[in-house]
């Protein structure tokens, strides 16, 4: 009987305990909901209870520089593994544009300067070391004109381009006077000349493409006119030209017009530009001009300055024959006519063409037998796709005055207007209402971000990357002359949204994060990634993606990642082994939401240890 009584008592106590636990859970849930509602006098008490019971929040994270001498928080999570520094020879390592690997590929049509990424077994699993003496770049706009020598210790351009006013070495800094091969008197005067023809001042031209950009002075001086230029140049004998551009705070990527399509959507740019960029525009059946035509929006402008324009006056200085230069210009004019570009003006050594608004306003295009049209059903499917000598079709119109694909508002009105691709139903499953809802959500997210990272909207972070940009909502929410955002749309995304991002007056690029990005190390101040690791789950190694993030992030740069709590927990453990300080916090809607936010700051450290760990 005693045994039976004892069993009954145990069951009673278990039942009571269970009821108490359930009751407390209900109490704290209601209290949390009350706290979030904004009503009642007990909010401060509820907030304190939440702070004490929330195990996902790590100690305060400092976003200050190492010079501020703030005490670093002690991590409460142990790293999964500790990554060692790579040997110092990898300081400026660009995995997919490695010079040694490039030489194994054909030189024809610049194939060897294109992306050639290492196989998995050759990938580095160590941290790329910053050079000894590395310092934070100067704040914008001073960074446009000055770059610390220690960050890019390469003087070759100061000698090679001395008379062209590209860059000068002064003391412990490089100074960029704003000159270029075609504008030794400065980019400002050159742009003034261009703006006398092209509508830059009124916001009609917002996005530009600079092919063969050098140190990107053209793009740098367009920024004060509210024009965002995507500049690209190969990693070649002009060492570090794209690295200089990014150190200056100017958008740029390593790239070349070779055999594969540019990683940009069709009808993206308001203007494209070549200033003595050495691209053989008339070669290969005009394939390079056809690629520019693909990425140029209807009504957009193409600017070509330097040889062969105005060859009759300049042929002696260019050390080429009249016959050679005349043939080259005639070929360019012929291809421009084939593309239905209207030659607007020729000023000195600069020629400006304009792409027609639609095919209805192109008489020669009515007879399609005179031109080879591309048969691709998706003009934005470009990742590692070969260029072909054909013209990319543009959307049909009902009226000769209508803009193919839809008219775009001047900037900044276009930033939050519904992009024509969405308004016209060209992105399946996305309505104007869904787009507006997305905008509203990102404004809310950014408000929460800035409450944790007080520097987010101050201009501290100049070069910003969004690794999975969606419709560009994050970039739009933080848009400011103080910063710019490289909006990356992963090639495996369910929807191709990059075209809509460009229609907002923002810039970006297609990329597959299973491979390295086309940039130098330490070129971004802040990296944002929303849902990226869920997207790439079972596609490639999480560790490889994080190491690539570390490669492109500056010392003391910041990271913001949104994802499922289970994924971010794994990311957090890896990040702690990469010399990152981290803080995992709840979604702004409360702890019951599975999506969390992981904030991180890369610690300041530099190379200088020649006996560092083996690379692999």
From TrEMBL:
Broad class of enzyme this protein falls into: transferase
InterPro entries recorded: Put_SAM_MeTrfase, SAM-dependent_MTases_sf
Membrane-spanning segments: 12-34
SUPFAM superfamilies the record matches: S-adenosyl-L-methionine-dependent methyltransferases
Gene Ontology terms for molecular function: methyltransferase activity
Gene Ontology CC: endosome; Golgi membrane; trans-Golgi network
Membrane topology label: Single-pass type II membrane protein; Single-pass membrane protein
Main location as per UniProt: membrane
EC number: 2.1.1.-
Cross-referenced Gene3D superfamilies: Vaccinia Virus protein VP39 (3.40.50.150)
Gene Ontology biological-process annotations: methylation
Family classification: Belongs to the methyltransferase superfamily.
Protein name as annotated: Methyltransferase
Source organism: Oryza glumipatula
Lineage per the UniProt record: Eukaryota, Viridiplantae, Streptophyta, Embryophyta, Tracheophyta
């Amino acid at each position: 009987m005693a045994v039976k009584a004892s069993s009954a008592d145990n069951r009673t106590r278990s039942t009571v305990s269970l009821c108490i636990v359930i009751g407390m859970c209900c109490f704290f849930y209601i209290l949390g909901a009350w706290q979030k509602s904004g009503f009642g006098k007990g909010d401060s008490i509820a907030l304190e209870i939440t702070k004490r019971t929330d195990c996902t929040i790590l100690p305060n994270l400092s976003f200050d520089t190492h010079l501020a001498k703030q005490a670093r928080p002690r991590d409460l999570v142990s790293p999964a593994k500790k990554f060692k520094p790579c040997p110092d020879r990898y300081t400026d390592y660009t995995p997919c544009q490695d010079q040694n690997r490039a030489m194994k590929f054909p030189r024809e049509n610049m194939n060897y300067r294109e992306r050639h990424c290492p196989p998995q077994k050759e990938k580095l699993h160590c941290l790329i070391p910053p050079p000894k003496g590395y310092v934070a770049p100067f704040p914008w706009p001073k960074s446009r004109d000055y770059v610390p020598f220690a960050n890019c210790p390469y003087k070759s351009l100061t000698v090679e381009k001395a008379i062209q006013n590209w860059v000068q070495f002064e003391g412990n800094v490089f100074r960029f006077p704003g000159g270029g091969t075609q504008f030794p008197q400065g980019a400002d005067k050159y742009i003034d000349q261009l703006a006398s023809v092209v509508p830059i001042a009124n916001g009609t031209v917002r996005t530009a493409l600079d092919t063969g950009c050098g140190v990107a002075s053209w793009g740098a001086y367009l920024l004060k006119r509210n024009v965002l230029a995507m500049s690209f140049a190969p990693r070649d004998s002009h060492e570090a030209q794209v690295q200089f551009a990014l150190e200056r705070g100017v958008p740029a990527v390593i790239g070349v017009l070779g055999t594969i399509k540019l990683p940009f959507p069709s009808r993206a740019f308001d203007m494209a530009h070549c200033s003595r960029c050495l691209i053989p525009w008339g070669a290969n059946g005009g394939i390079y001009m056809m690629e520019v035509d693909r990425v140029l929006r209807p009504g957009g402008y193409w600017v070509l300055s330097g040889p062969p324009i105005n060859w009759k006056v300049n042929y002696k200085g260019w050390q080429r024959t009249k016959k050679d230069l005349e043939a080259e210009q005639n070929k360019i004019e012929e291809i421009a006519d084939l593309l239905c570009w209207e030659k607007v003006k020729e000023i000195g050594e600069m020629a400006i063409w304009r792409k027609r608004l639609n095919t209805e306003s192109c008489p020669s295009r009515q007879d399609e037998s005179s031109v080879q049209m591309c048969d691709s059903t998706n003009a934005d499917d470009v990742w590692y796709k070969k260029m072909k000598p054909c013209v990319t079709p543009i959307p049909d119109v009902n009226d000769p005055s209508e803009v193919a694909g839809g008219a775009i508002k001047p900037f900044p009105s276009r930033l939050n207007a519904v992009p024509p691709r969405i308004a016209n139903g060209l992105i399946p499953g996305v309505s104007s209402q869904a787009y507006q809802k997305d905008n509203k959500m990102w404004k809310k997210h950014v408000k929460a971000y800035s409450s944790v990272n007080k520097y987010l909207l101050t201009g501290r972070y100049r070069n910003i990357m969004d690794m999975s940009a969606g419709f560009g909502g994050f970039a739009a929410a933080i848009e400011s002359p103080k910063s710019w955002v490289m909006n990356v749309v992963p090639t495996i995304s369910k929807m191709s949204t990059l075209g809509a991002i460009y229609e907002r007056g923002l810039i970006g690029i297609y990329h597959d994060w299973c491979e390295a990005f086309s940039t130098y190390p330490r070129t971004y101040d802040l990296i944002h990634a929303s849902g990226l690791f869920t997207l790439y789950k079972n596609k490639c190694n999480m560790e490889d993606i994080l190491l690539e993030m570390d490669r492109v992030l500056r010392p003391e740069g910041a990271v913001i990642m949104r994802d499922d709590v289970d994924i971010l927990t794994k990311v957090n453990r890896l990040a702690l082994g990469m010399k990152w300080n981290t803080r995992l916090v709840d979604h702004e809607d409360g702890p019951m939401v599975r999506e969390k936010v992981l904030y991180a700051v890369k610690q300041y450290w530099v190379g200088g240890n020649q006996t560092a760990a083996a690379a692999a």
